[in-house]
Amino acid sequence: MENAVTIFTGVAALAIVLQMLILLGMYLQVRQMNAHITRITSELHERLDPILSRIHFLLEESSGNFRQMVSDGAELTHLARSQAQKVDRVFSEAVDRLRDQILRADQILTGVLEQVEDAGSQFRKTVLEPVQQATAFIRGIKSGIDFLRARQRSPERAQQQPDEELFI
Question: Which helix (H) or strand (E) covers residue 79, if one does?
C-alpha cells in the first residue's frame, strides 16, 4: 500500500502540475487577448474621438439653429393663421356686399319690369283698343258697302246671303 500511496501522490502531483500548466496557458491567452482588445479599443478611441467631438460640436452649433427653426416655424404658423383669418374676413365682407348688390339689382329690375308692364297695359288701353275699335268700325262700313254693292248688282243673290256676314 505504500506503493499505492506513492503512485497516488505522484499522479496527484502530476495532475496539479498539469492543471497549473493549463491555467498558465489560459492566463497567457487571456493576457494576450486583453492586450489585443486594449489595442483595438485604443485604435477605436483614436478614430471615434474626432468623430464624436465633431458630432458634439455640430449638435451644440445646430441646437441654436434648431431652436431658431422651431421659433420661425411657430411664427410662420401664427402669421399664416392671422392672414387666413384676414382673408376669411375680406371674403365674408365681399360676399355680403355682393349679396346686397344682387338684392338691389333685383329690386331695380323688378321695378323696371313693373314699369314696363304698366306701360304695356297703358299702351294697350290708349293705342291698341282704339285702333281695334277703328278697325272694327272700318270693317263694318266695308261690309255694309259690299252688301249694298252686291244688292245693286243682283238683288236675288243679296237676299240669299245670310245675315251672319253683317256681323263682325
Answer: helix 2-123
List the grid coordinates of 104.
Answer: 338691389
Mean pLDDT of the chain: 86
C-alpha cell at 98: 355682393
Q: Which domain holds residue 48?
A: 2-155
- Written as nine digits, the cell of 80 is 399664416
Q: How far apart are CA 152 and CA 146, in angstroms?
A: 10
Count of structural domains, the chain: 1
Look at residue 164 and tell me if it is in a domain: no
pLDDT, one tens digit per residue, over 136-163 is 889 999 988 888 888 787 655 545 555 5
Quick check: is 160 in a domain? no
